[in-house]
Write a structure and sequence with these properties.
Layout lengths: L3 E6 L5 H14 L4 E6 L3 H5 L8 H10 L1 E4 L13 H8 L4 E7 L13 E7 L9 E3 L5 E3 L5 H17 L4 E6 L7 H13 L6 E6 H10 L6 E4 L1 H14 L7 E5 L4 E5 L16 H13 L3 H16 L2 E2 L11 E2 L2 H10 L33 E11 L5 H11 L4 E8 L2 E4 L11 E8 L8 H13 L3 E11 L2 E2 L8
Parallel strand pairs: 1-2, 1-3, 3-12, 5-10, 8-9, 8-10, 13-14
Antiparallel strand pairs: 4-5, 4-11, 6-7, 11-12, 15-18, 15-19, 16-17, 16-18, 19-20
Bound molecules: nicotinamide-adenine-dinucleotide.
Amino acid sequence: MSNTPITVAKGDGIGPEIMDATLHILREAGARLDIEEIEIGEKVYLAGNSAGIAQSSIESLLRTKVFLKAPITTPQGGGFKSLNVTTRKMLGLYANVRPCVAYDPYVRTKHPGMNVVIVRENEEDLYAGIEHQQTPDVTQCLKLITRSGCQRIVKYAFEYARRNNRKKVTCFTKDNIMKITDGLFHKVFDEIGALYDDIEKEHWIVDIGAAKMADTPEAFDVIVMPNLYGDILSDVAAQIAGSVGLAGSANIGAKYAMFEAIHGSAPRRAGQNLANPSGLLLGAVMMLVHINQPDIAAAVHNAWLKTIEDGVHTYDIFKEGISKEKVGTKEFAQAVASRVGQLPEKFKPVSYNAAPSQMVEDTVYAASTVKKETIGVDMFVHYAPGLTEELGQKLDALTPEGLKLVMVSNRGVKVYPGGLKDTITTDHWRCRFHSTTDGAPISHKQIIELLSRAEAAGLDFIKTENLCTFDGKPGFSLGQGQ
Ligand code: NAD
């Protein structure tokens, strides 16, 4: 069988040691790899490249499409872009997959038996990076959730569950509050989940779901969630499994994939043959499955489990009374390599299916036939706080024919007409206009007319948001109290 080309970066701090250890084990296990090595991280940043990766290295990634990456050190001070965010966006790595497993009784954990996989959406949500300061008092971050993005990640989670013989996929959202954005994620979860009869499905509101996961992780199997919740909860899950140094992670896209440990470059431990290479090694196991070498992946994983249950431990997981031998990075790698071909006796041995592809084909959004109509507009205005009545009357006076002022809200709460005196207001007002004929469409011309009248009245408008219906269903939320 031919070798698979991969790109490898040894990174900073403990990176080179744990990468050498990992590659040693992969070689001994017979992994069929052609390695292209690139330089990333601190040296590249400090040489003046603000992305931490050179163009020639990016070309290697585009060529091999598979990236095994050791942690890097991001230099202190501003101006350096996160290499992880750059790589994820550049390569379209929409899924972050993080198995969080307890290895009791050999590694201390609060949750014996924990075995949860977090599947985090990696590109959208509040991480689109679209932020504005709109008034002296008000800042805003745009939360973008797309139907096509939800379809990609949810389908990936179900396919992952099926391939890895997992029984249940849980979805976490906050759709009781964010009915449109998180509501879409939940809806797509229900739609796609319906196609997977063999897998149990459930949805939790993220706050109580997170509390349940931290308390009783055994209740979960695969959990899929939008970017922000996934960012936070994948760290919580790894930490409570008791094994931050043991967790690997995969970042998967339609064409490219990146595999790594979840921990950082631990600079204080660097160069001392102390670091635990297990996180990166388990990331590499996911890579072997991804490049369709499931036999090698299983051999490496089982040898690693046998090493852990034999009590051969690096300092970070060494426990008097349970561990048998405290070893350094190199000795640990040798211990794993010498067990290739053996199965664990206490842990359940793992096996991996031949996976034709770990990827879900790209769900590119194609223009749809949904009927969209604009039935109103929200005009956002910078105006002094507290002057609700004054602003309301100005708006009433300037409203063009054919439109009516439905309400003014401040921080989402309706304040005009008929608001409460005690509502605290800021300098950012949302003024909502509909057609005078209920539910009838309005034109762009009418919006422009509204803005020019606002301009003439000396109002500082910041932005407008069109209020649309899609196949007759409203695509906007009501103001609180509207
Ligand atoms: P860290 O994960 O590097 O270290 C946290 C603690 O865990 C330290 O006490 C360290 O000694 C220990 N530790 C981590 N990995 C270990 C291992 N394999 N074996 C034994 N002990 C281990 O987090 P940090 O100290 O906050 O960050 C250090 C640097 O790493 C920073 O520059 C940060 O930006 C970077 N970082 C990089 C990545 C990445 O490249 N993916 C991720 C996180 C942090």
